[in-house]
User: Fold this.
Amino acid sequence: MVQPLSFSAGIFPGGHTKNSPHKLAPSSFPRHRLNMSDHDATASSLALGLSHQQAGRIAEAKTIYEALLAKDRKQPDVLHMLGVIYSAEKAHPKAEKLIGEAIALDPERAPFHHNLGQAYRQQGKFAEAREAYRQAILLNPDEAESHFCLGNTHMALDEQKEALRAFQEALERAPNRMDIWSNLASTFLDMGEVDQAIMVFQRALALAPKDADMHYNLGTALLHKELYEEAVLTMRTVLDIKPNHHLAWCNIGTALKNLGQTQGAAEAFKQSISLCPEYADAHWNQALLLLAQGDFSAGWKAYEWRRKIPSLRIRHQEETPWQGGDIAGKTILIHAEQGLGDTFQFLRYLRSLKAKGATVIFETPSPLKNILQSATFIDQLVCIGESLPEFAMQAPLL
Assistant:
């Protein structure tokens, strides 16, 4: 599997459009005068709040910002900085409200729009985040971070072509950032452009030859290309740099299994599990290998780990599971979970449930509904996505 996309935090504390994202621009503050006005006092308090914030004294910073807003709500810098704090504290609706107020007062500040995008994205409001990042870019097209976050948001919206453009724009401004290179390549991989992904990973490795995760991602792309020997070599490079990389061990196992080297594959999966006992993918791949070797007792036991793999989308896990006990007189939902071939292969076991006195509801992929209408061992047939009748327990078909 590819390393998860790197979603940058990208919080910009403030400043105007062309200043560093790590500090408020000097022009944000009025210069001190001997006879201090209320405006000067506010700027001084804001500077003190920012000093506390940058030093990690968040409670002190928050106290100052809230006191300033209690006196005068129409202070965009203060609203924005307090919103940044709430965003860091994962209070994203509060951050959205505060930064939105700041923008209403001063709409020409790129960091405000960028950080509003962050608050939206953390709430899953990806369409709103996309527009906020676009506005930040309009105000400051030179900021790589906004292009990068826009690309990540396009990915979340399944807009791969737009994501490619955003990552490419980000790289023009920050050509040495590995996270941007990685996400660009991962986007190519998601689009099925494996050759392009490999080229981008190799380009990134020319900049950072000791980056273990980049080697890992290249190895994963090679697996997608079914270049198994090259994938093994690349994953072993990962282990030279980071010996405890459990993901690399799992992918070595996958490559060796496809090369017919089952003993080496078994050892690789075992090593991955020893390094990360809760890594479900390694257990599941180990299960498939055991089943292929005829070790059904250990294989089916390990196969249960698939329930912890989100990409397999096993449904109804929140409902009462059937543990193999007495089923007579009870209604059970059996649900297909994998391909049509697997469904046909295992449907015959529903007969044994009927023989034990169960009422069997079967949730099927819609292409099989007409074929299964006349099955005598199914009491009620429901297509995936349709409303389900009441049942006492459930189990996946496999």
